[in-house]
Every structure is written in structure tokens, then in C-alpha cells.
Amino acid sequence: MSVEQKTVSLPFKIKFSYSMGQIGDALGYNIYFFFFLFFLTDYVGVPPALAGTISLIAIIWDAIFDPVAGHISDNMRSPYGRRRPLMIMAALPYSIFAFLIFNSIALGTQATFIYFLVMTILFWSSYKFFVIPYFALGAELTDDFNERTTLRAWSSVGLYIAVMLASALPPYLLEYFENSGMSGQNSWRIIGAIFASGILLSAVICWNFTRGKEIYQHDQQAKQKMARSSLFKAIGQIIKLKPTKYLAGSVFFWAIASTMAMGGLIYLMKYNLGYGADRQSLYFIINSLVCIAWLPFINMAARRYDKKMVYACFLGIGSLGLLFFSLTGFPLFAILLIFCVIFCLGDSTYWTLYYSMMYDICEVDEYVNNRRREGVVTAVMSFSQKIGAACATWFTGLLLAFGGYEGTVETQTDSAHQMILYVNTLVPGVFGALAVLAVLFYPVTKKRFDSMMVALNAKRENKAYDDTDFKEML
Fold first, then answer.
1. Calpha distance 380→376 (Å, rounded)
2. Residue 30, SS3?
3. Which of 47, 351, 391, 430 is the most exposed place for a label (fewest CB within 10 A)?
4. How many CA atoms lie within 13 Å of 12's alpha carbon, on the beta-carbon side?
5. Per residue in 412-428, pLDDT tens?
6. What angle do CA 57, 60, 64 make, to 5 degrees?
7. Sign of CA pseudo-dihedral 266, 272, 274, 280
8. Contact in structure between 178 and 165 (CB atoms under 8 Å)
């Protein structure tokens, strides 16, 4: 018989401090996906297809080593926990390379390609050793099905504050510095330094105020069950889990949709719509505020109706919006804002609920394989997300090149304008629909999860248990 567990709320201090770590994650992640391709094409002069290839190689490199970071995190033995030591060690190099990727050096085409490829590889490598333990930490702060959603809603507030800063601030600062007589390349150096400082500060706040709050940190019985296992065996066991396959597929497809739709906006607003820095910044501020405004509604709906169906429904609405606006375009700023409201419902749901759903796989892994491997579970999902994001930047570069886009000219051709529109709407809309289709097969629901937790607690205590009510998850 299924059992309904009572939700145990986390203290405000923990939710707030954990959300600060999300700011550290999202500042670097979003300034990269919003502006790095644009920086390379329009300020360094790298051809768009080559610029997209730099991102593709670097992010695939990072994604491949995500499981390594997760495995190291899972197997760390420290009185300070398994996650936080890695987070603080990675925070400084992560912030340094966030600064260096926006530094242009006068080199030839080949040397420029090598320089930015190396810098982006180092950026993403240090990023993963902060963010994989950070996300795994979230699964260790609570094992409550609903409270994980609330924790992720708090984190999403931090996420969209960072998105607002990473999207709205650079165009404004760029125009301000250039109007003051500074070159565009030097302007980007200052912008990189500002964001690097924000990354380091928020990471340190999260690290400091979550110390000792992991629910399994002092549980000797849990430590005994977390025996060391090989990396490849751990990855194989987690990938075999039924929930992993379908959630990872959905994460991959929406990562493509989200990255293309958001990363292409700077091209859309500058070239198709003719917006200056003020209008661009205004849109990005509104975009982030709309995403934050959706969060209480998403959290309430997920707690009432189940994460999976809310996730599928709201991503579906966002995907339909993308497809619809590929036909209409954006003749008015008000139309762009309507697009923002519809797409943000899907995107906010993705960044809030997919992590919460991912955390629930950690208990499925423990039930099936007798291991707590939050790090590797996080890494597998991060791999799917980053491969999707890498494909998106590569697709964007290729499609822009195919449409005849030239980053060194002020006026684009009609074919380039049309391709910019499709990069922001039609193509991500198709991938968004695939994300919805994949998650419909995801088997974890609250009733099944609560029943499994009863059985898991009995299993931990070597008591009798039954899996009849949650067999479909296994």
C-alpha cells in the first residue's frame, strides 16, 4: 500500500545560502551562452562556424569529464563532507577563467582558435568541479519529494537573478564603456572581471553557510553503504535505471531548445529588430523577472499535481510558443514580451523541476544498487544538459553561416535575418517538443517515490519490505 510522507521544511537560511551557489553557477554559465559566441564573432572576428566549433569541442570535453567530477565527489572522505571541499577548491579557478575567456589577444586565426579553445576547456573544467558537487549537495540537504522542489524553486530565484545580470548588464556596460572611448575588447575585459568577482563571492557564501547540513554526513550506516565502486560501473548502473534514461533524454532536448532560444536573442534584437543596448537590457531584465514570477506557480503546481506532469505540460506550452512565433515574428516589442511570458513558463519549469526530479533518482539508485551516488547521478544529467548546450551553440553557428550571417558587417541579408528568426524559434521549438515526448515515459511519481522510501528505510534497517507499489520505477 502506498504511503504519503509528510513534508519536512528546510530552514530559510539553508534555502537562501544554497540559492547563492546557484548564482555562482549561473553567472558563468549564462554569460557564456548569452555572449561568448557573439563576442567571438563580433569582437574577435572569428567566423561563426569556427566560433561554434570552439564551444562544441570545449563543452563536449567538459561533459565527458562530468562523471569524473561526480565520482570523485561521491568517493571523497572528509570531515567537511563530500561536496563542499571540491566546491571551494574549484571556485577560484572557475572565476579566473570566466575572466580570461572574454580577453581578446591579437593573434592569427589559427593561434586565436587555439587560445580560445584552451581557455574555454579550462573554464568548463573548473566550472564542473564547482557545479557537480554543488548540485549533488542539494540532494543531501533533504530527501523529501516536495521539499526538493521548493529548494530548487529557491535556487531558481538565484538562477534568474544571475540570468538577469548576465544578460542585461553586458550590453549596457558595453555601450557605456565604448561611449567613454574604450575599445570593445577592453570593455569585455572589464565585464569579465566583474562577473568573475560575482562568481567567487556567491560561491564562498554558499560554501560557508551550508557547512554540516548534509543529512548523511554523520550517518555511519550510510557511509558503510557508500562503498567505493569503479567509475564506469557506477555510470553503467545509473544509466540502466529506468528514470535516468527518460529524464536524461528530456534534459538533452530542452538544453538545445533553451540554449538556442536564449543565446540567439542578442542576434535577433540587434539585427532583426534593430534594438540598441537599452532595449536589449530592458528585455533581458523583464525576461528574468517573468521567470522569477512564474516560480511560485510552478512550485505550487508541482507540489499539488506531481512534478512529471507539470514539467511535461509547461514545457509543452513553451514549445508551442516557440513554434507559433516562428510564423509571426516580432513586429512589436509587446509581441516579444508575449513570447517572453510563454517561453519563460517552459524554461523556468525546466530549470526548477529537472534538478528536483534528478535528486529523486538518487534514492532509486540506493534502493537498486545499495549506493548513494548523488555526484554521478548529477554528472549523468549534467552530461546530457551540456551535450545539448554544446550541440545548440554548434547548430547556431552552422545555421548562421548557412544563412549568410557576417559578424563584421552592420546590415545582414534577408536570408540571414530569416535564419536568425528560426534559430530563436522554429528549431528550438522542435527540440522542445522532443523534450516533452521523452519525459512522458519518466516513471517517478510522488506516490511511487513515497512507497519506495518506506521500503528503502526498511531495507536500511534489514527489515522486510515490498516493491509492489513502485515496480514501474525500477
1. 6
2. helix
3. 430
4. 0
5. 899 999 999 999 999 99
6. 140
7. negative
8. no
CB-based contact 411:73 (threshold 8 Å): no
Q: Please, what is the average pLDDT of the chain?
A: 90
User: Is the separation of the CB atoms in 92 and 111 below 8 Å?
Assistant: no
171-211 per-position pLDDT tens digit: 889 989 999 999 989 999 999 999 999 999 999 999 999 98
Is the C-alpha dihedral spanning 325, 171, 60, 380 positive or negative? negative
Query: Quick check: 104 and 43 in contact, CB under 8 A?
Result: yes
DSSP 8-state class, residue 370: S
Lowest mean pLDDT, pick from 116-130, 225-239, 441-455: 225-239
CB 360 within 8 A of CB 145: yes
pLDDT at 222: 47
Give the model confidence (pLDDT) of 95-107 as tens digits.
999 999 999 877 7
Distances (CA, A) of 228 to 66, 73, 138, 372: 18, 11, 21, 10
pLDDT above 70 covers a percentage of the chain that reads: 95
Closest CA to 155 of 137, 173, 143, 169: 137
Q: What is the structure's pLDDT at 5?
A: 56
List domains and CATH numbers for the chain: 12-209+228-443 (1.20.1250.20)
Rounded to an integer, what is the distance from CA 208 to the centroid of its chain? 23
- Residue bearing cell 500500500: 1
CA distances to 131, 220, 261, 269 from 281, in Å:
27, 51, 16, 10
CA end-to-end span of the chain: 17
Q: 123: which residues sit within 8 A by CB, 6+ positions away?
A: 28, 32, 58, 94, 97, 98, 100, 101
Residue 464, pLDDT > 60, answer yes
pLDDT at residue 355, rounded to an integer = 92
Q: Which whole-number Å values give the CA distances from 246 to 141, 258, 371, in the listed order?
A: 25, 18, 21
* pTM of the full structure: 0.83
Q: What is the pLDDT of residue 8?
A: 67
Return d(Cα 355, Cα 304) in angstroms, integer: 18
- Residue 125's nearest CA partner among 146, 88, 97, 161 is 97
Closest to 167 measured CA to CA, from 54, 58, 292, 26:
26
Helices (H), ranges, 180-276: 184-209, 220-225, 231-240, 242-263, 265-267
